[in-house]
Write a structure and sequence with these properties.
215 residues, alpha/beta, L,D-transpeptidase catalytic domain-like, nine-stranded mixed beta sheet, 5 helices, globular, disordered N terminus, EC 2.-.-.-
């Protein structure tokens, strides 16, 4: 005899696998990785287990007049990223920029945002340093705390062209404040996690010249 109770229990059992699909599994894994890279009791402006120079810790500062809220400005001289806020303020973060000859000043648009992205080196990177990058040519580096793009990535475009430049997290936090990357802007992972949640697709990014001259 099939009872109402049996039917309800059976339906619940059948429904359970649907609740644990790839999206939920990925989200759970992302949460686990976020916990791994975020210091216990993390405070955006004071936590510093990475030993950064104090000036490179995030700070809310006064923004220059006339800047558009939501835009990002990267000072390549001081190694600061400014995210402009409403009300005349900006959140300032310490960053690393591209090594000599690899940093590309210009005006870009964020057209993609990703949590715990997969990373694949460009053909130029592989040609330049095959011993370092060739092993990731097919399929790329899987996401996770050791991934070169870290926990979050903002993808920079010129029109509809992906420039392969990113603002991203890094598993090498001691590089912050230096010229260390292959052209991208690096941030400490908990810092870009905070930035990521406040940045929208379509935002404009200004990467200023290393000599401080106008774009």
């Amino acid at each position: 005899m099939v009872t109402r109770r049996f039917m309800i229990a059976s339906l619940a059992t059948l429904a359970t696998p649907a609740l644990i699909g790839p999206a939920m599994a990925a989200t759970s894994e992302w949460d686990s990785w976020d916990a791994q890279v975020t210091p216990q009791g993390f405070d955006l402006e004071t936590s510093n287990p990475w030993g950064l120079h104090p000036r490179l810790l995030p700070r809310r500062v006064k923004a220059k007049e006339g800047l558009t809220p939501g835009d990002i400005h990267v000072d390549a001289v001081a190694r600061y990223l400014y995210h402009i806020e409403e009300g005349g303020t900006a959140m300032r973060y310490g960053v690393a920029i591209g090594r000599d000859g690899l940093y590309e000043p210009g005006v870009y648009t964020i057209k993609r945002r990703a949590k715990w992205p997969r990373w694949t080196p460009t053909p130029t990177m592989i040609k330049r340093e095959p011993e370092k990058y060739a092993r990731w040519a097919d399929g790329g580096m899987p996401p996770g705390p050791a991934n070169a793009l870290g926990s979050r990535a903002l993808y920079l475009y010129k029109g509809n062209r992906d420039t392969y430049l990113r603002i991203h997290g890094t598993p090498a936090p001691r590089s912050i404040g230096t010229r260390a990357s292959s052209g991208c802007v690096r941030m400490v992972m908990p810092h870009i996690n905070a930035l990521y949640d406040t940045v929208a697709n379509g935002s404009t990014v200004y990467l200023y010249r290393t000599d401080g001259s106008p774009l």
